[in-house]
Automatic annotation (TrEMBL):
Native species: Saccharomonospora xinjiangensis XJ-54
Name this protein carries in UniProt: Uncharacterized protein
Length: 119
């Protein structure tokens, strides 16, 4: 948890199995900390509308988890998977518009190299 001297300097929207979609970096801390939909309001103000859309986006992939054979998890159809990734990018742009220029926003749908979002 952050103290009064720490500020959110970077937020990343990223998918990871069983984790929240928000990864937060605070000033003076090189580590990103994961936050789910319920926790993010502790450190950032995000509109309920955007939070709901990000929650649905994250659930679309989380709901594909195969508990019996984990490697079979994920959206199989390439077009649907691409749409999911593009939908997440649109959400990252919306997030950037909400948090403003003081906070950097990255989008990394599959946890790979992040894309810096400008809005």
């Amino acid at each position: 948890m952050m103290n009064d001297s720490e500020q959110v300097i970077r937020i990343e929207i990223r998918f990871d199995w069983g984790m929240g979609p928000f990864w937060i970096q605070f000033s003076g801390d090189p580590i990103f900390h994961d936050y789910d939909i319920e926790e993010i309001s502790e450190v950032l103000t995000i509109s309920e509308d955007l939070l709901g859309d990000i929650e649905k986006w994250n659930a679309r992939m989380q709901d594909t988890f195969d508990y019996e054979e984990g490697r079979n998890s994920g959206i199989k159809d390439p077009a649907e998977r691409g749409k999911w990734a593009e939908d997440g990018r649109v959400l990252a742009v919306r997030l950037k518009r909400e948090v403003g220029s003081a906070i950097a926003v990255e989008y990394s749908p599959f946890g790979d190299t992040g894309e810096e979002i400008d809005a």
